[in-house]
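Task 17 of the worksheet. Students: predict the tertiary structure of the chain below and write it out as structure tokens. Keep your answer in the requested format; marks are given for formatting as well as content.
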Amino acid sequence: MKRETLKDQINKDGSHTQIEKITQTPEDGFVPNKEHRTDWEYPGHDIGMFERGRFKGHKTTVIYQRTHTKTTRILFYVLYIIVSLIFSAIFMALISAQDTPEEANRFKMYFVGVIAFLIYGLVQSIISFRKQDQQREKERAKEQQEKD
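Model answer:
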């Protein structure tokens, strides 16, 4: 297997761009082939090496990755808030649909647990994003020192 990095750079806005080309040959061993397996209809298609989705052959894959840190964070926070509101609405509907106060109290406790979990996840993601920012700043400072 030959792995070649065509482009690897950190952009001015803090995002990271990486383009990589992977070339596999029969000498490398088995190559994944799950995308074509569903099109083949023949007796015994669900057993053997095709069930595992692998065959010996040539495969070239080009991977393009780009991280948009600011865009990703905004999207993450918006989606997190939307999911939190959906869960809250579901639990509020369940609480209001209960006939007895005991059942309503039980769902209120579930609701408190879900809200606590969502707040914990949000706080942990904020901490993780801050650690990533600090790590990037350290790397930039180190690169600046090496240039000077």
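Marker's comment: The mean pLDDT is 79. The longest helix spans residues 101-147.
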